Amino acid sequence: MNIIVCAKQVVDVAEIKIDASTKKPILVGIPQKISDMDKNALEEAIKIKEKHGGKITVVTIGASDAKERMKELLAMGADEGVLISPPEHADYHVIAHLLAGAITKIGAYDIILCGEASIDMFSSQIGPRLAGLLNIPQITYAQTITVENNKVLSERNLGEKAVSMESSFPVLLTVTKESNTPRLPSLMAILSSSSKPIHEWPATGVTGEALVPKVKTIDIKGIPMQRKNIIYQNDLDASISKLVDELGKVGVLR
Amino acid sequence: MVLVYSDDKKLTLELLSKAHELGKELHKKVIAVSIGHEDYAKEFLEHGADIVIVVETSQHQFKAEEYTSILQTIMKDHGNELILIGSNKNGKELAGRLAAKLDAGCVMDCIKVYMANKKLTTERIVYSGNAIAVEEFSAAPQILTIPPKVYDPLPKNEQHKGEIIKKKIEPEHFASKILKTQEMKSEGINVEDAEIIVSCGRGFKKKEDIKLVSDLADILKGRTVGCSRPIAADLKWLSEDHWIGLSGHKVKPKLYIACGISGQIQHIAGMRDSGVIVAINKDPEALIFKSADYGIVGDLYEVLPKLTSAIKGKQG
Q1: Which of B95, B130, B221 has its CB closest to that of A16?
Q2: Strand-strand pairing, A138-148 and A151-157
Q3: Does residue B199 register a pLDDT over 80?
Q4: Is B82 an 8 Å CB contact of chain A?
Q5: How many angstroms separate the first and last alpha carbons of chain A?
Q6: Is residue A185 classed as helix, strand or coil in its secondary structure?
Q7: ipTM of the complex in this document
Q8: Residue B86 forms beta bridges with which residues?
Q9: pLDDT digits (tens, 9 = 90+) for B168-191
Q10: Which residues of B fall within a CB distance of 8 Å from A218?
Q11: HSE (CB half, 13 Å, CA atoms) of B107?
Q12: Which one of B95, B109, B131 has the shortest CB-CB distance to A222?
Protein backbone atom coordinates (compact mmCIF):
# COMPACT_ATOMS: atom_id res chain seq x y z
CA MET A 1 0.00 0.00 0.00
CA ASN A 2 1.58 3.30 -1.10
CA ILE A 3 0.20 6.19 0.89
CA ILE A 4 0.86 9.87 0.34
CA VAL A 5 0.04 12.42 3.01
CA CYS A 6 -0.10 16.13 2.18
CA ALA A 7 0.87 18.31 5.12
CA LYS A 8 1.05 22.07 5.49
CA GLN A 9 3.21 24.13 7.79
CA VAL A 10 1.09 26.90 9.30
CA VAL A 11 1.33 29.57 11.96
CA ASP A 12 -0.08 28.34 15.25
CA VAL A 13 -3.35 30.27 15.13
CA ALA A 14 -3.89 29.87 18.88
CA GLU A 15 -0.77 32.01 19.41
CA ILE A 16 -1.85 34.86 17.16
CA LYS A 17 -2.13 38.22 18.89
CA ILE A 18 -4.06 41.19 17.59
CA ASP A 19 -2.42 44.57 17.17
CA ALA A 20 -4.49 46.84 19.42
CA SER A 21 -4.36 49.86 17.11
CA THR A 22 -4.75 48.33 13.65
CA LYS A 23 -6.80 45.30 14.82
CA LYS A 24 -4.71 43.26 12.38
CA PRO A 25 -3.28 39.91 13.40
CA ILE A 26 0.44 39.92 14.24
CA LEU A 27 1.84 37.02 12.23
CA VAL A 28 5.55 37.68 12.58
CA GLY A 29 7.32 35.67 15.24
CA ILE A 30 4.40 33.27 15.74
CA PRO A 31 5.51 29.65 16.15
CA GLN A 32 4.98 27.38 13.14
CA LYS A 33 3.48 23.92 13.28
CA ILE A 34 1.99 21.23 11.08
CA SER A 35 -1.71 21.95 10.64
CA ASP A 36 -3.73 19.82 13.08
CA MET A 37 -5.87 17.88 10.62
CA ASP A 38 -2.83 17.02 8.51
CA LYS A 39 -1.53 15.17 11.57
CA ASN A 40 -4.88 13.38 11.75
CA ALA A 41 -4.33 12.42 8.10
CA LEU A 42 -0.88 11.02 8.91
CA GLU A 43 -2.27 9.11 11.90
CA GLU A 44 -4.80 7.43 9.57
CA ALA A 45 -1.97 6.60 7.17
CA ILE A 46 0.08 5.02 9.95
CA LYS A 47 -2.89 2.94 11.10
CA ILE A 48 -3.41 1.67 7.55
CA LYS A 49 0.30 0.85 7.21
CA GLU A 50 0.34 -1.00 10.55
CA LYS A 51 -2.42 -3.25 9.28
CA HIS A 52 -1.57 -3.65 5.61
CA GLY A 53 2.09 -2.70 5.29
CA GLY A 54 3.42 -0.27 2.73
CA LYS A 55 5.13 3.06 2.58
CA ILE A 56 4.09 6.54 3.69
CA THR A 57 5.46 9.59 1.91
CA VAL A 58 4.72 13.05 3.28
CA VAL A 59 4.64 15.98 0.87
CA THR A 60 4.94 19.56 2.07
CA ILE A 61 5.21 22.81 0.19
CA GLY A 62 7.05 25.22 2.39
CA ALA A 63 10.15 27.21 3.18
CA SER A 64 13.27 25.32 4.27
CA ASP A 65 12.33 25.68 7.97
CA ALA A 66 9.44 23.29 7.22
CA LYS A 67 12.12 20.59 7.26
CA GLU A 68 12.10 20.71 11.06
CA ARG A 69 8.32 20.17 11.11
CA MET A 70 8.66 17.37 8.61
CA LYS A 71 11.05 15.57 10.96
CA GLU A 72 8.17 15.38 13.48
CA LEU A 73 6.06 13.62 10.85
CA LEU A 74 8.87 11.16 10.09
CA ALA A 75 9.18 10.51 13.84
CA MET A 76 5.44 9.85 14.03
CA GLY A 77 5.76 7.15 11.39
CA ALA A 78 6.10 8.51 7.85
CA ASP A 79 8.88 6.83 5.85
CA GLU A 80 10.01 9.61 3.57
CA GLY A 81 9.50 13.31 3.13
CA VAL A 82 9.30 15.49 0.04
CA LEU A 83 9.74 19.20 0.60
CA ILE A 84 8.97 21.54 -2.26
CA SER A 85 10.15 25.12 -2.07
CA PRO A 86 7.18 27.39 -2.77
CA PRO A 87 7.21 29.85 -5.66
CA GLU A 88 7.09 33.53 -4.75
CA HIS A 89 3.43 33.89 -5.71
CA ALA A 90 1.06 31.04 -5.03
CA ASP A 91 -2.65 30.44 -4.64
CA TYR A 92 -4.62 27.20 -4.28
CA HIS A 93 -4.41 26.66 -8.03
CA VAL A 94 -0.60 26.81 -7.93
CA ILE A 95 -0.24 24.73 -4.76
CA ALA A 96 -2.58 21.99 -6.03
CA HIS A 97 -0.60 21.77 -9.29
CA LEU A 98 2.67 21.52 -7.35
CA LEU A 99 1.27 18.74 -5.18
CA ALA A 100 -0.10 16.90 -8.20
CA GLY A 101 3.26 17.25 -9.94
CA ALA A 102 5.14 16.00 -6.89
CA ILE A 103 2.79 13.04 -6.47
CA THR A 104 3.17 12.11 -10.13
CA LYS A 105 6.95 12.27 -9.70
CA ILE A 106 6.81 10.09 -6.57
CA GLY A 107 5.10 7.48 -8.70
CA ALA A 108 2.59 4.77 -7.82
CA TYR A 109 0.13 5.51 -5.04
CA ASP A 110 -3.02 3.90 -3.67
CA ILE A 111 -4.25 6.43 -1.16
CA ILE A 112 -3.71 10.16 -0.78
CA LEU A 113 -4.65 11.64 2.58
CA CYS A 114 -5.14 15.34 3.38
CA GLY A 115 -6.56 17.22 6.33
CA GLU A 116 -10.14 18.46 5.81
CA ALA A 117 -8.73 22.01 5.87
CA SER A 118 -5.72 23.86 7.23
CA ILE A 119 -6.16 25.67 10.52
CA ASP A 120 -4.83 28.99 9.23
CA MET A 121 -6.89 29.57 6.08
CA PHE A 122 -9.58 26.89 6.48
CA SER A 123 -10.46 26.85 2.80
CA SER A 124 -10.70 23.05 2.38
CA GLN A 125 -10.01 23.19 -1.33
CA ILE A 126 -6.64 21.49 -1.71
CA GLY A 127 -8.01 17.95 -1.23
CA PRO A 128 -10.82 18.21 -3.81
CA ARG A 129 -8.60 20.19 -6.18
CA LEU A 130 -5.87 17.58 -6.03
CA ALA A 131 -8.34 14.75 -6.63
CA GLY A 132 -9.71 16.73 -9.59
CA LEU A 133 -6.27 17.28 -11.12
CA LEU A 134 -5.38 13.61 -10.72
CA ASN A 135 -8.88 12.64 -11.90
CA ILE A 136 -9.41 10.20 -9.03
CA PRO A 137 -12.37 9.77 -6.63
CA GLN A 138 -12.49 11.93 -3.50
CA ILE A 139 -13.94 11.14 -0.10
CA THR A 140 -14.02 14.31 1.98
CA TYR A 141 -14.66 14.84 5.71
CA ALA A 142 -13.83 11.22 6.52
CA GLN A 143 -14.52 10.32 10.13
CA THR A 144 -13.46 6.67 9.82
CA ILE A 145 -11.33 4.94 7.20
CA THR A 146 -11.18 1.17 6.80
CA VAL A 147 -8.99 -0.43 4.18
CA GLU A 148 -9.92 -3.85 2.82
CA ASN A 149 -8.10 -5.83 0.14
CA ASN A 150 -8.95 -3.77 -2.86
CA LYS A 151 -11.08 -0.95 -1.51
CA VAL A 152 -11.47 1.64 1.18
CA LEU A 153 -14.63 2.21 3.24
CA SER A 154 -15.31 5.49 4.94
CA GLU A 155 -17.91 7.15 7.14
CA ARG A 156 -18.26 10.82 6.37
CA ASN A 157 -19.69 13.39 8.73
CA LEU A 158 -21.60 16.10 6.90
CA GLY A 159 -23.31 17.61 9.93
CA GLU A 160 -26.97 16.94 9.17
CA LYS A 161 -26.10 13.74 7.31
CA ALA A 162 -23.77 10.79 7.74
CA VAL A 163 -22.69 9.25 4.45
CA SER A 164 -20.95 5.87 4.07
CA MET A 165 -18.82 5.51 0.97
CA GLU A 166 -16.47 3.08 -0.66
CA SER A 167 -13.92 3.39 -3.40
CA SER A 168 -11.32 1.34 -5.15
CA PHE A 169 -7.75 2.65 -5.43
CA PRO A 170 -6.38 5.16 -6.12
CA VAL A 171 -8.50 7.49 -4.02
CA LEU A 172 -8.02 10.73 -2.12
CA LEU A 173 -9.52 11.22 1.34
CA THR A 174 -9.66 14.28 3.57
CA VAL A 175 -9.95 13.61 7.29
CA THR A 176 -11.61 15.51 10.13
CA LYS A 177 -10.19 16.54 13.47
CA GLU A 178 -12.48 14.02 15.18
CA SER A 179 -11.18 11.06 13.17
CA ASN A 180 -8.40 10.18 15.64
CA THR A 181 -5.85 11.50 18.11
CA PRO A 182 -2.46 11.78 16.42
CA ARG A 183 0.24 9.86 18.30
CA LEU A 184 3.16 11.54 19.99
CA PRO A 185 6.43 10.01 18.81
CA SER A 186 8.54 8.20 21.38
CA LEU A 187 12.12 9.26 22.02
CA MET A 188 13.29 6.12 20.21
CA ALA A 189 11.16 6.99 17.20
CA ILE A 190 12.54 10.53 17.17
CA LEU A 191 16.11 9.27 17.26
CA SER A 192 15.64 6.61 14.60
CA SER A 193 13.77 8.98 12.28
CA SER A 194 16.90 11.05 11.71
CA SER A 195 18.03 8.52 9.12
CA LYS A 196 14.80 8.81 7.11
CA PRO A 197 15.24 10.75 3.87
CA ILE A 198 13.80 14.20 3.16
CA HIS A 199 13.99 15.07 -0.53
CA GLU A 200 14.09 18.75 -1.34
CA TRP A 201 12.69 19.57 -4.75
CA PRO A 202 12.46 23.02 -6.34
CA ALA A 203 8.98 24.04 -7.54
CA THR A 204 10.25 24.15 -11.11
CA GLY A 205 11.25 20.51 -10.84
CA VAL A 206 7.70 19.20 -10.35
CA THR A 207 5.63 21.10 -12.91
CA GLY A 208 6.60 21.58 -16.52
CA GLU A 209 5.44 25.14 -16.87
CA ALA A 210 5.59 28.17 -14.63
CA LEU A 211 2.29 28.50 -12.76
CA VAL A 212 0.47 31.81 -12.52
CA PRO A 213 -1.89 32.36 -9.59
CA LYS A 214 -5.53 33.08 -10.41
CA VAL A 215 -6.28 34.79 -7.10
CA LYS A 216 -4.22 37.43 -5.36
CA THR A 217 -4.43 38.36 -1.69
CA ILE A 218 -4.51 42.13 -1.50
CA ASP A 219 -4.96 42.62 2.23
CA ILE A 220 -5.25 40.81 5.53
CA LYS A 221 -7.36 43.15 7.59
CA GLY A 222 -8.50 43.11 11.18
CA ILE A 223 -12.00 42.44 12.43
CA PRO A 224 -13.40 45.21 14.57
CA MET A 225 -15.05 43.80 17.67
CA GLN A 226 -16.47 46.46 19.88
CA ARG A 227 -18.11 45.16 22.97
CA LYS A 228 -18.98 46.88 26.23
CA ASN A 229 -16.89 44.49 28.36
CA ILE A 230 -18.84 45.21 31.55
CA ILE A 231 -17.74 42.43 33.89
CA TYR A 232 -19.42 41.79 37.26
CA GLN A 233 -17.41 40.05 39.96
CA ASN A 234 -17.62 39.29 43.67
CA ASP A 235 -21.15 39.70 45.09
CA LEU A 236 -23.07 37.26 42.92
CA ASP A 237 -26.62 38.30 43.82
CA ALA A 238 -25.85 41.96 43.18
CA SER A 239 -24.09 41.03 39.91
CA ILE A 240 -27.09 39.09 38.66
CA SER A 241 -29.57 41.79 39.48
CA LYS A 242 -27.41 44.41 37.73
CA LEU A 243 -27.09 42.17 34.69
CA VAL A 244 -30.82 41.50 34.49
CA ASP A 245 -31.52 45.26 34.80
CA GLU A 246 -29.07 45.99 31.98
CA LEU A 247 -30.53 43.29 29.73
CA GLY A 248 -33.98 44.68 30.39
CA LYS A 249 -32.81 48.20 29.51
CA VAL A 250 -31.25 47.18 26.20
CA GLY A 251 -34.46 45.40 25.33
CA VAL A 252 -33.37 41.82 24.82
CA LEU A 253 -35.63 40.24 27.44
CA ARG A 254 -38.87 41.23 25.74
CA MET B 1 -22.80 34.11 -17.52
CA VAL B 2 -23.14 34.08 -13.77
CA LEU B 3 -23.88 30.52 -12.80
CA VAL B 4 -25.45 29.55 -9.46
CA TYR B 5 -25.61 26.12 -7.89
CA SER B 6 -26.30 24.67 -4.49
CA ASP B 7 -27.86 21.39 -3.42
CA ASP B 8 -29.71 23.47 -0.82
CA LYS B 9 -32.71 25.30 -2.28
CA LYS B 10 -32.80 28.06 0.33
CA LEU B 11 -29.11 28.77 -0.17
CA THR B 12 -29.63 28.88 -3.95
CA LEU B 13 -32.22 31.63 -3.45
CA GLU B 14 -29.74 33.59 -1.31
CA LEU B 15 -26.99 33.22 -3.93
CA LEU B 16 -29.37 34.29 -6.69
CA SER B 17 -29.77 37.63 -4.96
CA LYS B 18 -26.03 38.31 -5.21
CA ALA B 19 -25.79 36.78 -8.68
CA HIS B 20 -28.56 39.10 -9.88
CA GLU B 21 -26.67 42.13 -8.58
CA LEU B 22 -23.36 41.01 -10.13
CA GLY B 23 -25.13 40.08 -13.37
CA LYS B 24 -26.54 43.59 -13.65
CA GLU B 25 -23.17 45.18 -13.00
CA LEU B 26 -21.33 42.92 -15.43
CA HIS B 27 -24.15 42.80 -18.02
CA LYS B 28 -24.32 39.05 -17.80
CA LYS B 29 -27.26 36.69 -17.50
CA VAL B 30 -27.84 34.66 -14.36
CA ILE B 31 -28.22 30.90 -14.75
CA ALA B 32 -29.45 28.78 -11.87
CA VAL B 33 -28.77 25.07 -12.07
CA SER B 34 -31.16 22.62 -10.47
CA ILE B 35 -30.13 19.01 -10.55
CA GLY B 36 -33.13 16.72 -10.40
CA HIS B 37 -35.64 19.32 -9.16
CA GLU B 38 -37.84 20.67 -11.90
CA ASP B 39 -40.22 21.98 -9.25
CA TYR B 40 -37.69 24.61 -8.10
CA ALA B 41 -37.37 26.24 -11.51
CA LYS B 42 -40.25 28.73 -11.28
CA GLU B 43 -39.16 29.92 -7.86
CA PHE B 44 -35.59 30.45 -9.06
CA LEU B 45 -36.88 32.63 -11.93
CA GLU B 46 -39.02 34.66 -9.52
CA HIS B 47 -35.98 35.26 -7.33
CA GLY B 48 -33.53 36.58 -9.90
CA ALA B 49 -32.53 33.84 -12.35
CA ASP B 50 -32.74 34.64 -16.07
CA ILE B 51 -32.33 31.02 -17.06
CA VAL B 52 -32.90 27.86 -15.04
CA ILE B 53 -31.24 24.71 -16.26
CA VAL B 54 -33.02 21.65 -14.92
CA VAL B 55 -30.72 18.66 -15.15
CA GLU B 56 -32.09 15.18 -15.48
CA THR B 57 -29.44 12.61 -14.57
CA SER B 58 -28.94 9.10 -13.30
CA GLN B 59 -26.94 10.38 -10.30
CA HIS B 60 -29.81 11.42 -8.03
CA GLN B 61 -27.79 11.95 -4.91
CA PHE B 62 -25.11 14.61 -4.65
CA LYS B 63 -21.69 13.20 -5.42
CA ALA B 64 -18.84 15.60 -6.06
CA GLU B 65 -17.16 13.77 -8.95
CA GLU B 66 -20.34 13.30 -11.01
CA TYR B 67 -21.79 16.73 -10.18
CA THR B 68 -18.52 18.36 -11.19
CA SER B 69 -18.83 16.56 -14.50
CA ILE B 70 -22.45 17.78 -14.89
CA LEU B 71 -21.49 21.41 -14.24
CA GLN B 72 -18.58 21.11 -16.70
CA THR B 73 -21.01 19.92 -19.37
CA ILE B 74 -23.32 22.88 -18.71
CA MET B 75 -20.41 25.30 -18.88
CA LYS B 76 -19.32 24.00 -22.24
CA ASP B 77 -22.67 25.16 -23.62
CA HIS B 78 -23.22 28.32 -21.62
CA GLY B 79 -19.84 29.79 -20.77
CA ASN B 80 -18.21 29.80 -17.41
CA GLU B 81 -17.05 33.24 -16.34
CA LEU B 82 -18.37 33.37 -12.80
CA ILE B 83 -19.69 30.53 -10.70
CA LEU B 84 -21.37 30.95 -7.32
CA ILE B 85 -21.69 27.80 -5.22
CA GLY B 86 -23.44 27.41 -1.87
CA SER B 87 -20.88 26.94 0.86
CA ASN B 88 -21.94 23.82 2.68
CA LYS B 89 -19.75 20.70 2.83
CA ASN B 90 -21.06 19.38 -0.49
CA GLY B 91 -20.65 22.76 -2.13
CA LYS B 92 -17.08 23.17 -0.98
CA GLU B 93 -15.88 19.82 -2.24
CA LEU B 94 -17.68 20.48 -5.50
CA ALA B 95 -16.14 23.95 -5.89
CA GLY B 96 -12.61 22.70 -5.24
CA ARG B 97 -12.87 19.86 -7.72
CA LEU B 98 -14.52 22.04 -10.35
CA ALA B 99 -11.79 24.65 -9.89
CA ALA B 100 -9.18 22.00 -10.67
CA LYS B 101 -11.06 20.85 -13.78
CA LEU B 102 -11.38 24.42 -15.09
CA ASP B 103 -7.95 25.51 -13.86
CA ALA B 104 -9.84 28.31 -12.15
CA GLY B 105 -9.30 30.46 -9.12
CA CYS B 106 -11.60 29.67 -6.22
CA VAL B 107 -12.35 31.48 -2.97
CA MET B 108 -14.30 29.64 -0.30
CA ASP B 109 -16.72 31.03 2.28
CA CYS B 110 -16.95 34.60 0.98
CA ILE B 111 -18.70 36.98 3.34
CA LYS B 112 -18.43 39.88 0.89
CA VAL B 113 -18.24 39.92 -2.89
CA TYR B 114 -17.87 43.09 -4.97
CA MET B 115 -16.22 44.62 -8.00
CA ALA B 116 -13.22 46.84 -7.24
CA ASN B 117 -10.96 48.28 -9.94
CA LYS B 118 -12.94 46.14 -12.38
CA LYS B 119 -11.84 43.01 -10.56
CA LEU B 120 -13.99 40.55 -8.73
CA THR B 121 -13.01 40.99 -5.09
CA THR B 122 -13.89 38.82 -2.12
CA GLU B 123 -13.55 38.88 1.64
CA ARG B 124 -13.41 35.86 3.87
CA ILE B 125 -12.54 35.12 7.47
CA VAL B 126 -9.13 33.56 8.08
CA TYR B 127 -6.79 32.79 10.97
CA SER B 128 -9.57 31.26 13.08
CA GLY B 129 -11.72 34.33 12.93
CA ASN B 130 -8.92 36.77 13.69
CA ALA B 131 -8.70 38.47 10.34
CA ILE B 132 -10.32 39.03 6.96
CA ALA B 133 -8.46 38.17 3.78
CA VAL B 134 -9.27 40.49 0.89
CA GLU B 135 -8.59 38.72 -2.38
CA GLU B 136 -9.08 39.52 -6.05
CA PHE B 137 -9.33 37.36 -9.11
CA SER B 138 -6.86 37.98 -11.90
CA ALA B 139 -8.34 35.53 -14.39
CA ALA B 140 -11.60 33.82 -15.37
CA PRO B 141 -13.25 31.42 -14.72
CA GLN B 142 -13.92 32.57 -11.19
CA ILE B 143 -15.46 30.27 -8.60
CA LEU B 144 -16.67 31.35 -5.21
CA THR B 145 -18.61 29.72 -2.44
CA ILE B 146 -20.93 31.69 -0.18
CA PRO B 147 -22.19 30.42 3.17
CA PRO B 148 -25.84 30.56 4.27
CA LYS B 149 -27.22 33.83 5.64
CA VAL B 150 -24.73 36.14 3.96
CA TYR B 151 -27.34 37.47 1.54
CA ASP B 152 -31.12 37.72 1.78
CA PRO B 153 -33.11 36.31 -1.14
CA LEU B 154 -34.69 38.94 -3.40
CA PRO B 155 -38.38 39.49 -2.78
CA LYS B 156 -40.48 37.24 -4.98
CA ASN B 157 -41.16 38.89 -8.32
CA GLU B 158 -43.71 37.04 -10.44
CA GLN B 159 -43.07 39.51 -13.27
CA HIS B 160 -39.44 38.39 -13.58
CA LYS B 161 -39.66 35.99 -16.45
CA GLY B 162 -37.00 33.75 -17.82
CA GLU B 163 -36.30 30.58 -19.63
CA ILE B 164 -36.39 27.05 -18.28
CA ILE B 165 -34.11 24.65 -20.12
CA LYS B 166 -34.30 20.92 -19.48
CA LYS B 167 -31.15 18.95 -20.09
CA LYS B 168 -30.40 15.27 -19.85
CA ILE B 169 -26.80 14.87 -18.74
CA GLU B 170 -25.00 11.61 -18.17
CA PRO B 171 -21.91 12.44 -16.13
CA GLU B 172 -18.55 10.76 -16.20
CA HIS B 173 -18.69 8.05 -13.53
CA PHE B 174 -16.05 7.34 -10.94
CA ALA B 175 -14.99 4.29 -8.98
CA SER B 176 -16.37 5.51 -5.67
CA LYS B 177 -19.94 5.00 -4.54
CA ILE B 178 -22.32 6.01 -1.80
CA LEU B 179 -23.33 2.99 0.28
CA LYS B 180 -25.68 4.62 2.73
CA THR B 181 -26.92 8.04 3.75
CA GLN B 182 -28.31 8.53 7.18
CA GLU B 183 -29.99 11.63 8.50
CA MET B 184 -28.24 12.59 11.71
CA LYS B 185 -30.45 12.62 14.74
CA SER B 186 -31.87 16.09 14.51
CA GLU B 187 -34.06 17.69 17.12
CA GLY B 188 -35.33 20.22 14.62
CA ILE B 189 -33.22 22.86 16.27
CA ASN B 190 -32.28 25.74 14.04
CA VAL B 191 -29.72 27.88 15.85
CA GLU B 192 -29.18 30.03 12.77
CA ASP B 193 -32.67 31.48 12.99
CA ALA B 194 -32.83 31.78 16.78
CA GLU B 195 -33.42 35.16 18.39
CA ILE B 196 -31.96 34.19 21.73
CA ILE B 197 -29.35 31.50 22.30
CA VAL B 198 -28.05 30.15 25.59
CA SER B 199 -24.89 28.23 24.89
CA CYS B 200 -22.80 25.78 26.89
CA GLY B 201 -19.17 24.74 26.75
CA ARG B 202 -16.50 22.71 28.47
CA GLY B 203 -17.32 24.29 31.86
CA PHE B 204 -20.11 21.73 32.31
CA LYS B 205 -19.07 18.62 34.19
CA LYS B 206 -21.65 16.20 32.87
CA LYS B 207 -24.33 15.87 30.25
CA GLU B 208 -27.24 16.14 32.68
CA ASP B 209 -26.04 19.57 33.82
CA ILE B 210 -26.95 21.05 30.44
CA LYS B 211 -30.44 21.23 31.92
CA LEU B 212 -29.25 24.42 33.65
CA VAL B 213 -28.85 25.97 30.20
CA SER B 214 -32.13 24.69 28.80
CA ASP B 215 -33.95 25.91 31.92
CA LEU B 216 -32.70 29.42 31.20
CA ALA B 217 -33.39 29.11 27.48
CA ASP B 218 -36.92 27.93 28.19
CA ILE B 219 -37.94 31.14 29.95
CA LEU B 220 -36.37 33.34 27.27
CA LYS B 221 -38.15 33.92 23.99
CA GLY B 222 -36.33 31.84 21.44
CA ARG B 223 -35.67 28.85 23.66
CA THR B 224 -32.60 27.75 21.81
CA VAL B 225 -29.62 25.95 23.24
CA GLY B 226 -26.27 26.22 21.54
CA CYS B 227 -22.85 24.84 22.35
CA SER B 228 -19.17 25.01 21.53
CA ARG B 229 -17.17 22.38 19.64
CA PRO B 230 -16.26 19.97 22.48
CA ILE B 231 -19.89 19.49 23.55
CA ALA B 232 -21.09 18.51 20.05
CA ALA B 233 -18.03 17.10 18.33
CA ASP B 234 -16.04 15.40 21.08
CA LEU B 235 -18.42 14.64 23.96
CA LYS B 236 -21.53 14.42 21.75
CA TRP B 237 -23.74 15.63 24.60
CA LEU B 238 -25.72 17.64 22.06
CA SER B 239 -26.28 17.03 18.36
CA GLU B 240 -24.36 19.08 15.83
CA ASP B 241 -27.47 21.19 15.23
CA HIS B 242 -26.42 23.04 18.36
CA TRP B 243 -22.79 23.55 17.47
CA ILE B 244 -21.83 27.20 17.06
CA GLY B 245 -18.45 28.16 15.66
CA LEU B 246 -16.22 28.26 12.66
CA SER B 247 -16.95 24.66 11.68
CA GLY B 248 -20.41 24.63 13.22
CA HIS B 249 -23.24 27.11 12.72
CA LYS B 250 -22.86 30.84 12.37
CA VAL B 251 -25.47 32.70 14.39
CA LYS B 252 -26.62 36.24 14.96
CA PRO B 253 -29.27 36.25 17.67
CA LYS B 254 -30.41 39.34 19.55
CA LEU B 255 -28.98 37.91 22.75
CA TYR B 256 -26.24 35.31 23.14
CA ILE B 257 -25.43 33.91 26.57
CA ALA B 258 -22.20 31.88 26.70
CA CYS B 259 -21.98 29.65 29.78
CA GLY B 260 -18.75 27.89 30.65
CA ILE B 261 -17.31 28.65 27.22
CA SER B 262 -13.66 29.67 27.25
CA GLY B 263 -13.96 31.79 24.11
CA GLN B 264 -11.61 30.12 21.64
CA ILE B 265 -11.46 32.18 18.49
CA GLN B 266 -13.13 29.37 16.54
CA HIS B 267 -16.21 29.76 18.72
CA ILE B 268 -16.15 33.55 18.55
CA ALA B 269 -16.13 33.29 14.75
CA GLY B 270 -19.56 31.66 14.96
CA MET B 271 -21.24 34.17 17.27
CA ARG B 272 -19.44 37.48 16.86
CA ASP B 273 -22.37 39.05 15.00
CA SER B 274 -24.77 38.55 17.92
CA GLY B 275 -26.58 41.62 19.21
CA VAL B 276 -25.77 41.45 22.91
CA ILE B 277 -23.26 38.94 24.24
CA VAL B 278 -23.27 37.79 27.88
CA ALA B 279 -20.55 35.52 29.26
CA ILE B 280 -20.57 33.44 32.41
CA ASN B 281 -17.26 31.90 33.40
CA LYS B 282 -15.47 31.20 36.64
CA ASP B 283 -12.11 32.24 35.21
CA PRO B 284 -11.85 36.06 35.19
CA GLU B 285 -9.10 35.75 32.57
CA ALA B 286 -11.27 33.71 30.18
CA LEU B 287 -11.03 34.97 26.60
CA ILE B 288 -14.81 35.02 26.26
CA PHE B 289 -15.03 38.16 28.42
CA LYS B 290 -13.10 40.12 25.79
CA SER B 291 -15.86 39.37 23.30
CA ALA B 292 -18.74 40.03 25.70
CA ASP B 293 -20.88 43.05 26.50
CA TYR B 294 -21.64 41.75 29.97
CA GLY B 295 -19.89 39.14 32.00
CA ILE B 296 -20.37 37.43 35.33
CA VAL B 297 -17.34 35.88 36.94
CA GLY B 298 -18.64 32.94 38.90
CA ASP B 299 -19.41 29.25 39.08
CA LEU B 300 -22.05 28.55 36.47
CA TYR B 301 -23.63 25.94 38.75
CA GLU B 302 -24.40 28.77 41.13
CA VAL B 303 -24.95 31.56 38.59
CA LEU B 304 -27.37 29.87 36.19
CA PRO B 305 -30.18 28.92 38.63
CA LYS B 306 -30.02 32.40 40.16
CA LEU B 307 -30.00 34.12 36.77
CA THR B 308 -32.94 32.02 35.61
CA SER B 309 -35.03 32.93 38.62
CA ALA B 310 -34.00 36.60 38.46
CA ILE B 311 -35.12 36.86 34.82
CA LYS B 312 -38.34 35.03 35.68
CA GLY B 313 -38.89 37.61 38.43
CA LYS B 314 -38.25 40.47 36.03
CA GLN B 315 -40.68 39.09 33.50
CA GLY B 316 -43.30 38.91 36.27
Answers
A1: B130
A2: antiparallel
A3: yes
A4: no
A5: 62
A6: coil
A7: 0.91
A8: B146
A9: 999 999 999 999 998 876 566 788
A10: 121, 134-136
A11: 28
A12: B131
- Chain A CB contacts of B135 below 8 Å: 215-218
Query: Residue B194's closest CA among B233, B172, B226?
Result: B226
To the nearest whole Å, the CA of A67 is away from the closest chain B CA by: 23
* Cβ within 8 Å, pair A93-B175: no
Do residues B210 and B187 make contact, with C-beta atoms less than 8 angstroms apart? no
Cα distances (angstroms) measured from residue B67 to each of A97, B142, B175, B312? 22, 18, 14, 52
In a 13 Å sphere around the CA of A40, the CA atoms on its Cβ side amount to 23
Do residue A161 and residue B183 have CB atoms under 8 angstroms apart?
A: yes
Q: B16-26 in b/e burial notation, b at 16+ Cβ within 10 A?
A: bbbbbbbbeee
Asked if residue B224 has pLDDT above 90, the reply is no
The structural domains of chain A, with segments of one domain joined by +, span 2-205
The residues in B 257-286 lying below 8 A from A, measured between CB atoms, are 264-265, 268, 272, 275-278, 284
How far is residue A199's CA from residue A196's CA, in Å, rounded to a whole number? 10
- Could A164 and B137 be called an inter-chain contact, meaning their C-beta atoms sit closer than 8 Å? no
Q: How far is CA B251 from the centre of its chain?
A: 9
What residue ranges define each of the domains in chain B, with the CATH number in brackets?
A: 2-168 (3.40.50.620), 191-315 (3.40.50.1220)
| CATH number of the structural domain A2-205 | 3.40.50.620
Name the residue among B181, B254, B291 with its Cβ closest to that of A163. B181
Instruction: Give one word for B250, left, alpha or beta, with left for phi > 0 and alpha for psi -120 to 50.
Output: beta
**B154 vs A187, B17, B269, CA distance in Å?**
61, 5, 27
Q: What is the CA radius of gyration of chain A?
A: 22
Give the model confidence (pLDDT) of A191-238 as tens digits: 999 999 999 999 988 887 789 999 999 999 988 767 999 999 989 999
Residue B68 to residues A92, A173, B101, B192: CA-CA distances in angstroms? 18, 17, 8, 29
Q: How far apart are the C-alpha atoms of A162 and A155, rounded to whole Å?
A: 7
pLDDT in tens, A80-113: 999 999 888 999 999 999 999 999 999 999 999 9
Between CA B34 and CA A148 the distance in angstroms is 36
Yes or no, beta carbons of A178 and B89 under 8 Å apart? no
Partners of B196 on chain A (C-beta within 8 Å) are 252
Q: Which long-range contacts (CB under 8 A, 24 or more apart) does A30-34 make?
A: A32/A65, A32/A66, A32/A69, A33/A9, A33/A69, A34/A7, A34/A8, A34/A9, A34/A10, A34/A69, A34/A72, A34/A73
With contact defined as beta carbons under 8 Å apart, do B218 and B311 qualify?
A: no
Give the integer Cα–Cα distance in Å for B269 and A221.
15
Query: Which of A119, A125, A233 faces B108 most closely, judged by CB atoms?
Result: A125
Q: How many angstroms separate the CA atoms of A45 and A5, rounded?
A: 7
